[in-house]
Amino acid sequence: MALNSIHWFRKGLRLHDNPALREAVQGAATVRCVYFLDPWFAGSSNVGVNRWRFLLQCLEDLDASLRKLNSRLFVIRGQPANVFPRLFKEWKISRLTFEYDSEPFGKERDAAIKKLAMEAGVEVIVKISHTLYDLDKIIELNGGQPPLTYKRFQTLISRLDPPEMPVEMLTDTLMGRCVTPVSEDHGDKYGVPSLEELGFDTEGLPSAVWPGGETEALTRIERHLERKAWVANFERPRMNANSLLASPTGLSPYLRFGCLSCRLFYFKLTDLYRKKNSSPPLSLYGQLLWREFFYTAATNNPRFDKMEGNPICVRIPWDKNPEALAKWAEAKTGFPWIDAIMTQLRQEGWIHHLARHAVACFLTRGDLWISWEEGMKVFEELLLDADWSVNAGSWMWLSCSSFFQQFFHCYCPVGFGRRTDPNGDFIRRYLPVLRGFPAKFIYDPWNAPESVQAAAKCIIGVHYPKPMVHHAEASRLNIERMKQIYQQLSRYRGLAPGVSGSPVPTGNGSGSILLNFDSEEQTGPSGVGQQHQRLQQHGT
């Protein structure tokens, strides 16, 4: 009897280093690669047009690559649990393969599909390739609990075997005699939909700064590694205004959607050092390992993206202030540095990791005292690289709700940007209304004399809003609030924050919010180091 396979794409939208896809074609007579898209979900979900466009471009690129192998991508409209039983019968399927999903809701979904497959007599093969390690092994090594400090996480993975090497890209040779039955009306039935079909208004939509797809990802990684040559030469990058802009070497959205294999990235970084006959330091992989750390922390915690009911999250009585939240999300805070970042995020779907630090701190413990959950939702909507585990973990981190407790460090929404981009070119790019201000006042235009505002053709309070808060006062108050919360918590537990055994998770010095793999500077505690501390300022 002929062996007919389905490979189910979710993340992992690539042909390189895709072990589950390799299993699908192994010894099979036919293979169909499917991706499920729920049109109703597209119209109702909290995901912005840039992320949807990136996904559709990924699917188009995947389909184009499969065509070169005389195959096609089948984009299925509907829910997997509702559609798979029909496909198993209609296509006489005997094998289903997919990449392991470590997130709690993904595991629940996959368990239901495995049950349906078993009932239909379909073999299921699942392979790990979205993470470097088997997360369950890390947790098992830690006594059944995920490590809640990065240092502990590093200790645990040092005891594991190195990540597995990437598998070979799917080729004609590997396909062998395996074919994909494609009907003449394939495009109508299973083609990649347009944004318009999903209900998005694309009139006036600017071209994508980040084109989606594996082809683009593989081009970018070569550029990225050329630029990363400083790593092997032991050089340190410098943060400047250009660092704040999207780079043709950026990789974060491609890792998030699995257009780029994290294992391929890992071993290409290793090769940089091998060429220098030197052993790479663990910090070289910091960007990937922080991603792995948050995946591990989240995998068995379905409440990881919530404050209530989340065992690792400190309960903080955040303010409910929809008006203030809207000003932050819509770039109307009156602080040019914050508003320029949020404008870039909405327009392009990406911001530098230190810019993420700035706007996240401003929304939560720095100025507005609004819950990290609200900020997480906005990032989920707008960020191309927003990832459930990393997004939630990073917001908890920077709001001092988990992992990190140095609440007395607070980003100044004036001084931080000024140190990074003294001339204010970034602000002029994204807030043209402020273009006429001299560098002296572009970060705090409300302090400019009326004559300067008039010359700039921008009167503060008329053409651009006044600051929504007094930063020095707000941050001072919020630091005191945090201090009281942590004092109460430590008294209740009989432990000081940061002491071994504390119920409050601790970091080891400095944090990273939403790792983005794109800046030259290493992200996270192992890399930000002194620069992170230098840029964190209380007061202007």
UniProtKB/TrEMBL annotation:
<dbReference type="Pfam" id="PF03441">
    <property type="entry name" value="FAD_binding_7"/>
</dbReference>
<feature type="site" description="Electron transfer via tryptophanyl radical">
    <location>
        <position position="395"/>
    </location>
</feature>
<feature type="binding site">
    <location>
        <begin position="287"/>
        <end position="294"/>
    </location>
    <ligand>
        <name>FAD</name>
    </ligand>
</feature>
<keyword id="KW-0804">Transcription</keyword>
<keyword id="KW-0600">Photoreceptor protein</keyword>
<keyword id="KW-0675">Receptor</keyword>
<keyword id="KW-0285">Flavoprotein</keyword>
<keyword id="KW-0539">Nucleus</keyword>
<keyword id="KW-0274">FAD</keyword>
<dbReference type="GO" id="GO:0032922">
    <property type="term" value="P:circadian regulation of gene expression"/>
</dbReference>
<dbReference type="InterPro" id="IPR006050">
    <property type="entry name" value="DNA_photolyase_N"/>
</dbReference>
<dbReference type="GO" id="GO:0003677">
    <property type="term" value="F:DNA binding"/>
</dbReference>
<keyword id="KW-0090">Biological rhythms</keyword>
<dbReference type="InterPro" id="IPR005101">
    <property type="entry name" value="Cryptochr/Photolyase_FAD-bd"/>
</dbReference>
<dbReference type="InterPro" id="IPR036155">
    <property type="entry name" value="Crypto/Photolyase_N_sf"/>
</dbReference>
<keyword id="KW-0678">Repressor</keyword>
<dbReference type="GO" id="GO:0009881">
    <property type="term" value="F:photoreceptor activity"/>
</dbReference>
<feature type="site" description="Electron transfer via tryptophanyl radical">
    <location>
        <position position="318"/>
    </location>
</feature>
<feature type="site" description="Electron transfer via tryptophanyl radical">
    <location>
        <position position="372"/>
    </location>
</feature>
<dbReference type="GO" id="GO:0005737">
    <property type="term" value="C:cytoplasm"/>
</dbReference>
<dbReference type="GO" id="GO:0043153">
    <property type="term" value="P:entrainment of circadian clock by photoperiod"/>
</dbReference>
<dbReference type="InterPro" id="IPR002081">
    <property type="entry name" value="Cryptochrome/DNA_photolyase_1"/>
</dbReference>
<comment type="similarity">
    <text>Belongs to the DNA photolyase class-1 family.</text>
</comment>
<feature type="compositionally biased region" description="Polar residues">
    <location>
        <begin position="522"/>
        <end position="540"/>
    </location>
</feature>
<keyword id="KW-0805">Transcription regulation</keyword>
<dbReference type="GO" id="GO:0045892">
    <property type="term" value="P:negative regulation of DNA-templated transcription"/>
</dbReference>
<keyword id="KW-0963">Cytoplasm</keyword>
<dbReference type="GO" id="GO:0071949">
    <property type="term" value="F:FAD binding"/>
</dbReference>
<feature type="domain" description="Photolyase/cryptochrome alpha/beta">
    <location>
        <begin position="3"/>
        <end position="132"/>
    </location>
</feature>
<dbReference type="InterPro" id="IPR014729">
    <property type="entry name" value="Rossmann-like_a/b/a_fold"/>
</dbReference>
<keyword id="KW-0547">Nucleotide-binding</keyword>
<protein>
    <recommendedName>
        <fullName>Photolyase/cryptochrome alpha/beta domain-containing protein</fullName>
    </recommendedName>
</protein>
<keyword id="KW-0716">Sensory transduction</keyword>
<feature type="region of interest" description="Disordered">
    <location>
        <begin position="510"/>
        <end position="540"/>
    </location>
</feature>
<feature type="binding site">
    <location>
        <begin position="385"/>
        <end position="387"/>
    </location>
    <ligand>
        <name>FAD</name>
    </ligand>
</feature>
<dbReference type="InterPro" id="IPR036134">
    <property type="entry name" value="Crypto/Photolyase_FAD-like_sf"/>
</dbReference>
<dbReference type="Pfam" id="PF00875">
    <property type="entry name" value="DNA_photolyase"/>
</dbReference>
<dbReference type="GO" id="GO:0005634">
    <property type="term" value="C:nucleus"/>
</dbReference>
<keyword id="KW-0157">Chromophore</keyword>
